[in-house]
Design brief:
single chain; 4 strands
């Protein structure tokens, strides 16, 4: 697996800027729209659970689970951007991820932040 399997974040083609900061240098916030989020829940398939169990006995990275978590976070972020665009936003400020176990069925990943309209200062 290459680095592209383990990376994530925003793609260059997105027309909604997503940042983890309160503001964006060189821009000013003209309107705050409010909270937006993207949510996904992924179950683990039996093969990856068995492989992870075996790997945990000898140590090392659980590459299959790492790749799945990256894909899950990217999907949550895509949904965040879709919701922000649907509400008229061109930026999401203070983006964060929250990850929790979902009723022993899988992992819930939520990307959330504040939708806003920004323009060059």
């Amino acid at each position: 697996m290459g680095i592209e399997d383990y990376g994530g974040g925003q793609t260059a083609q997105s027309d909604v800027l997503v940042v983890t900061t309160n503001d964006v240098p060189g821009y000013r916030v003209t309107r705050v729209i409010g909270e937006v989020f993207g949510l996904t829940v992924r179950s683990r398939h039996l093969g990856s659970q068995i492989g992870a169990g075996l790997k945990s006995m000898i140590g090392g990275e659980l590459k299959g689970l790492t790749k799945t978590l990256v894909q899950t976070r990217n999907q949550a972020m895509e949904r965040l951007v879709e919701q922000a665009k649907a509400r008229g936003s061109n930026a999401v400020l203070m983006m964060r991820f929250d990850v929790t176990e979902a009723a022993d069925a899988g992992t819930e990943v939520c990307a959330y932040g504040t939708a806003a309209v920004v323009e060059k200062a």
